[in-house]
Amino acid sequence: MDASVVVLSVVVLLFAVASAVLGFIAESKTLTPDDINYAGGVCFYPAKPAYMLGIRAVALLAAAQIIASVASLCCVCFNPRGGATGPNLKKAASSIVLSWIFAVAAAVSYAQGVSWNAATTRPAFVDGFGLLIKCEYLRGAVFTRAALLGLAAAVLGICAYAILRERPAGDGPKPDHGQQPAVGHAQNTQQQVAPAAPQVASTV
After folding, report:
1. Exposed, middle or buried, 196 (CB in 10 Å: 0-12/13-18/19+)?
2. What share of residues in the chain are helix, strand, coil (percent, to 5)?
3. How confident is the model at residue 3 (pLDDT cuts 50, 70, 90)?
4. 35, 61, 105, 202: which has the fewest C-beta neighbours closer than 10 Å?
């Protein structure tokens, strides 16, 4: 795996996980019906710790998204030939788009949770029978949903960058065909045979 992919994954996940942790903590610090005060047809909502936790979670999620998106953009702009092309480029673009969709959905959920945990007043309402006065409060695990969406957005952003950093097939080192192998000189292994000395027959 490319070293830059590892570095980006660590940085983005660090921000995304920190954002998710704050989101999970905020879920346990949200407004409850016992926290609401009623007087003169008005509901008084106190500020809860989930208010600041949600704001910080959104900031960390935005940082993770910006880092992943800028890294992917730089990979395309400054390395147009060495990165992904064709189908891989389409996959990376789809991952980036889905990442931002999830991030925006997470930010909307965080904003909803933050607005309902801020110090404010709202008019009370009467139920359908006109017998019971109620104060509205936020239901549903909005901070938990936002935390999970933020993690999914970060993972998709990392996947997009990893796809863009993939080396095309056959982009490895190629042998140099320009040089011809050295041709050794043939050695003459034929041995020189000395002529045989003439034999002289002796006579008695």
Report:
1. exposed
2. 55, 5, 40
3. confident
4. 202
